[in-house]
Amino acid sequence: MSKPNVALESDRARASGMMQRLVARHDWSPTLGPRESWSPVLSMTAEMVLGHGFPMILLWGPRLIQIYNDGYAEVLGPKHPAGLGQPTEQCWPEVWHINGPIYERVRAGETVTYEDKLYPLARDGTLRDAWFTLTYSPIREPGDAEVAGVLVTVFETTKVHVAEQERAAMELDLREAEARSRTLVEGISQAVWEADPQGQVEAASASWRAYTGQSGRSASGEGWMDAVHPDDRAKVRSAWFDAMASQRGVDADFRLRHADTRDYRWTNLRAVPLRYADGAVKKWVAMNIDIHDERVLKEQQEELLAQLQHRVRNILSVVRSVFARTVDTGRSLDDIADHFRGRLDSLARTQVGVTRTAAGMLDLENLIRDELLSVGESDGPRLVIDGPEIELSPKTAEGLGLAVHELTTNSLKYGALRAHCGDLAIKWRLERSALGARSLEFTWEEFRVPTVPVQPDHLGFGTELIEQALPYQLKATTELEFRGGGVRCKISVPLSDEEGIPASGRARGRGEREHGR
Amino acid sequence: MGDELAGKRILVLEDEFYIASDIDRALRGAGGTVVGPFAQVAEGLASIESETIDAAVLDVNLQDESTHALADKLADMRVACLFVTGYDKDWVARRHGDVPCLTKPVRAQTVVKRLGELLGR
User: Fold this and answer.
1) CATH 3.40.30.120 assigned to A2-156
2) B94 contacts on A by Cβ (under 8 Å)
3) Does A314 touch chain B (CB under 8 A)?
4) Common-topology check for domains A185-290 and A350-513
5) N or C: which end of chain A has fewer CB within 10 A?
6) Which residues pair with A127 in a beta bridge?
């Protein structure tokens, strides 16, 4: 008995010897009997276990009582220190279904080894997966055929396993991310392709071939540029090879042939260099994104803006000319101001009307009524306003509006509207010639106005407008008569395709508006 | 009134009567002979078939392709063209390149002066 004691003594002297101390202090009498009574094999094996660097546990006797070392205490986790001297089945109920059969085999004399075996262990109060490589060896008393104990040597491989799992998960994540970005790129792009450092395409990608309808052979080298709109080719070529030379990436907008629609669509080409570690260009990766709709919209917007500028600057020019002509009459400043204000208001009403609808069309009747309303006149027993609903372009409306203004001003001062000393009929209709050309026939007719003997000189502007400006800019045919009984003005204006009776207004009856004169 | 355009025949295309007649008056005042003024491109095109033209004042309507045809034809004939337009110069340049261009509203006298420069007076 002295020999094991000596060994125990020397081991106790080791710096870390927690289990040595616990085993020494443990009361073994209920299980394996007092320490002094242990057989030499048990004592020696226990000593070997306690002194070993690998986790080891010795299961002794029919109840497989546990003696384990510092390393194994870690494996036990919270089961330590209660596990010391405990029958192993009580200590490990959760894996008894695994361990029980193994011990049976070892007791039958077999050495059993398992590599990377999964043992769910209750560590820190929760069941966690842990992996171990274990060897179960039978220990016999000398000369005895019976196996007295099972020595278990353990090497935990959980860390390796977790690392492997993490690596696999990362790989899966990476593959998913790759698939995600590939799907995204394919979803938003027309084509994704590659070129060598000199900008030559070795093999056109499937997406490029599908989009442009080019074959792999015809797109290779610089052949891909054949799918670019002929007008854009030179620009694309220089942008492409400038980028290859400067290695700075490509960002170019151009039209690209679209096989499905047999048309060109605007595309934005982006290409960036992929580099080796030393910075040299390995290849170029390129992507085309469809910007057709945005581009067309932008062009329409620019066009609209240009048209607006054109209109605004033109109307300013007209205002300038109208002003110069009003001043040229050489009348009093009050008179000039009065006339100019009236003409400016008339132009303004047309502009407001034009900008009221998206189509920029103006209703003739509104134009006339607005003009008359501005001087406090509306239809009644002595004023007839009658004609079908007719939409006019801004250009026609501007000219006619100004003519109506001049006629109204004249009528207020000298004609039918002057204290209502006569009657006025403003009528219009749509006429279609034998050749199908449509025209607006407008008449302004005053009746029973006390005679105005001579053509009033104040009508200089209005006369020029009706007799010269309208024929010039509207190709109108006009007649202006100052006769006994009042003014009679006829204006015949050819209408453009978009002018005339609007589709929604055809059914509108106008007979009820007629007032007898 | 001067004679900076004396002996010169100038085509005027401008669809606004008042602008056209102001330019017309100013060109005549400077001694020029006005061909037109025309409100429609077709009239302008017809006139260059039968008349000698030294210069042209054009109001370009960019929506109307025939305006470009007239401008191109005059350029081919090496007739000095002055664009008087409500559009931005960029828009005119986009279609016709870097051509002499005045932006409306413009004084008729400015048109005369610029034409005189173009004709080397």
Assistant:
1) no
2) none
3) yes
4) no
5) N
6) A122
Intra-chain end-to-end CA distance of chain B, in Å: 15
Phi, psi (degrees; rounded to nearest 5) at A287? -140, 135
Point out the residue among B16, B87, B88 whose CB comes nearest to the CB of A317.
B16
Most B CBs within 10 A among A301, A309, A396, hence the mutation to make, goes to A309
Q: pTM for the complete prediction?
A: 0.58
Quote the CA–CA distance of A189 and A44 in Å, as a whole number.
75
Phi, psi of A139 (to 5 degrees): -115, 125
Q: Tell me, what's the ipTM?
A: 0.87
Helix/strand/coil (H/E/C) assignment for every residue in A27-82: CCCCCCCCHHHCCHHHHHHHHHHHHCCCCEEEEECCCCEEEECHHHHHHHHHHCCC
Average pLDDT per run of 10 along chain A, which is 517 residues long? Answer: 38 61 92 92 92 90 93 84 93 88 92 85 74 90 89 88 88 86 74 88 84 87 92 93 88 91 91 90 89 90 82 83 84 88 89 74 88 84 89 88 91 80 90 88 89 59 89 91 85 89 54 38
Burial A231-259 (b: 16+ CB within 10 A, else e): ebeeebeebbeebbeeeeebebebbbbbe
Half-sphere exposure of A76 (CA within 13 A, CB side): 24
- CA A115 to CA A132: how far, in whole Å? 7
Peptide bond into B105 cis (omega under 30): yes
Helix pair angle (B17-29, B108-118), 10° resolution = 50
Look at the domain A185-290 and name its fold: Beta-Lactamase (3.30.450)
Torsion of CA A463, A467, A469, A473, to 10 degrees: 160
- What does the domain layout of chain A look like in residue ranges? 2-156, 185-290, 350-513
Tokens (6 digits) for B42: 């077709």
pLDDT, one tens digit per residue, over A292-302 is 999 999 988 88
Contact between A314 and B106 using a beta-carbon 8 Å cutoff? no
Residue A105 token pair: 């085999």
Interface residue A316 vs chain B (CB under 8 A): yes
B22 touches chain A (CB under 8 A): yes
Contact of B57 with chain A, judged by CB distance below 8 Å, is answered with: no
* CATH tag for A350-513 (out of 3.40.50.20, 3.30.300.10, 3.20.20.10, 3.30.565.10): 3.30.565.10
* CB–CB contact B17 A313 (8 Å): no
What is the chain B residue with the closest CA to A314?
B86
CATH of B9-118, one of 3.40.50.1010, 3.40.50.2300, 3.30.930.10, 2.60.120.260: 3.40.50.2300
